[in-house]
Write a structure and sequence with these properties.
Blueprint: H1 5-13, E1 27-31, E2 34-37, E3 42-45, H2 58-68, H3 80-90, E4 97-103, H4 106-121, E5 125-129, E6 156-159, H5 170-186, E7 191-196, H6 214-222, E8 226-230, H7 245-249, E9 255-258, E10 269-274, H8 275-284, H9 295-310, H10 313-334, E11 338-344, E12 347-352, H11 363-375, E13 378-379, E14 381-383, E15 389-392, H12 400-416
Parallel strand pairs: 3-13, 5-6, 5-7, 7-8, 8-9
Antiparallel strand pairs: 1-2, 2-3, 4-10, 9-10, 11-12, 12-15, 14-15
Helix pairs in contact: 2-9, 3-9, 4-8, 5-6, 10-12, 11-12
The structure holds 4'-deoxy-4'-aminopyridoxal-5'-phosphate (PMP).
Family: Belongs to the class-III pyridoxal-phosphate-dependent aminotransferase family.
Keywords: Aminotransferase, Pyridoxal phosphate, Transferase
GO molecular function: pyridoxal phosphate binding; transaminase activity
């Protein structure tokens, strides 16, 4: 028998590579909200936030092909693409966020944001939540508790991930931030930055009221630190009500980083900050990025930018997201395992529990449901602090028919999978 693709991957790329699902899916093509595997089976993609405006969107494909056939080079030449995109992007931010920088991955963007924070504050301490992911560089991987580095830097400290289902108050969370600042100071590190996803996407996307973060933000600023908002997941209109996650939370960060959906699959990422922070960074670090902001990446990003507006995708996210959540709430009436339905726009899901009274997380059950739904041709994931939240972030062209298909699969899976 010939060696399986999974075995070849392991042999050539090494052990412990992550795959989704107990039986990984081998995809060969995609369009809009659908993907197809090597056997021709169709799946509805409810999870992939990379193909933001739909898989293989013709306008994005055309922009990439046209620019690749005209010119692609590193970023030391003058080119309109990078400034055209920077102009569009910075125009979507409040004052004083008017300077952009481009990279190839969200990890790099967060890495630079940490360096910018050092440059502008002169300090080294960083705070993150204890259930987040901000990327894979050596510095950024220090911000992970779920995949802890072997050598934790003493310049990094953590606060608990906010939770709206088992809530802690905004003031208590700010006290946690103050305590982390004090611990850092004790270890000789003044605060340079609090790094958060404003939607707490990896933490289980709690429904936090606007202004909930204000006391913590005040504590950070009082200590001389800045706020880095990681918009890699909530950005670019996904939340429906707002274009950026920090707008929904009601604050203006000092640096906003972004990536994944920005190029619809083409690797482009970046950050936006103030002129003051950018100047401090440029004065402190000599920085060059060969591919960051190259003409093809900028053509891809600009096409995505235009499609979001031309096709009203933020509005679609709001409408279809509300519809899908209402459907999940209907399912909750007959499936007591659904403890909470939450999210915003096309970033939503359901927290599954053994018992609504105790809210005991149904972690194994949630994993089994995600796998059962996969066999019904619908792709989603599960995460959150207890890994018991079905998480959905489909391409923004997701329709109400797509939502109905997802709801049917979840309904059937909840009925079939034993709670255990
Ligand atoms: N920040 C967040 C919130 C992410 O979810 C991710 C990727 N999962 C990253 C940063 C890192 O982005 P990349 O994989 O492009 O380096």
């Amino acid at each position: 028998m010939s060696e399986s693709l999974l075995d070849r991957r392991e042999r050539l790329l090494g052990p412990r590579l992550t795959t989704f699902y107990e039986q990984p899916v081998h995809l060969v093509r995609a369009l809009g909200t659908k993907v197809w595997d090597a056997d021709g089976k169709e799946y509805l993609d409810c999870y992939n936030n990379v193909p933001h405006v739909g898989h293989c969107h013709p306008k994005v494909v055309e922009a990439i092909c046209k620019q690749a056939g005209t010119l692609n080079t590193h970023t030391r030449y003058l080119h309109e693409g990078i400034v055209d995109y920077a102009e569009a992007l910075t125009g979507s931010f409040a004052d004083p966020l008017n300077s952009a920088m481009f990279t190839c991955t969200g990890s790099e963007a967060n890495d630079i944001a940490l360096r910018m924070a050092r440059a502008v504050t002169g300090a080294t301490g960083v705070i993150a939540t204890d259930h987040t992911y901000h990327g894979n560089t050596m510095a950024v991987s220090q911000l992970s508790c779920t995949n802890p580095p072997p050598d934790r830097w003493d310049s990094v400290d953590f606060v608990s991930a906010p939770d709206s289902y088992r809530p802690i108050s905004s003031e208590d969370w700010a006290k946690e931030v103050e305590a982390a600042i004090a611990r850092l100071e004790k270890r000789g590190h003044q605060l340079s930055a609090l790094v958060i996803c404003p939607f707490f996407a990896n933490e289980g996307f709690p429904d936090l009221p606007k202004g909930w973060l204000d006391p913590a933000i005040r504590a950070v600023r009082k200590a001389g630190g800045i706020i880095i908002a990681d918009e890699v997941q909530p950005g670019f209109g996904r939340l429906g009500t707002h274009f950026w996650g920090h707008e929904k939370s009601g604050f203006v960060p000092d640096i906003a980083t972004m990536g994944k959906p920005m190029g619809n699959g083409h690797p482009v990422a970046g950050l936006v900050t103030s002129r003051k922070v950018m100047e401090a960074f440029r004065e402190t670090f000599r920085y060059f990025n060969t591919f960051g902001g190259n003409p093809v990446s900028m053509a891809a990003a600009l096409a995505v930018w235009d499609v979001i507006r031309e096709e009203g995708l933020q509005e679609n996210a709001l409408e279809v997201g509300d519809y899908a959540r209402a459907g999940l709430r209907d399912l909750a009436e007959k499936h007591p395992e659904i403890g909470d339905v939450r999210g915003s726009g096309l970033f939503f899901g359901a927290e599954l529990v053994h018992d609504r009274e105790t809210k005991a997380p149904a972690t194994d059950f949630t994993k089994a449901v995600a796998n059962a739904v996969r066999h019904k041709g619908v792709l989603m994931n599960f995460l959150g602090v207890h890994y018991n939240v079905l998480k959905m972030r489909p391409p923004l062209v997701f329709s109400k028919d797509d939502a109905d298909r997802m709801l049917k699969a979840v309904d059937e899976a909840l009925a079939e999978v034993p709670l255990g």
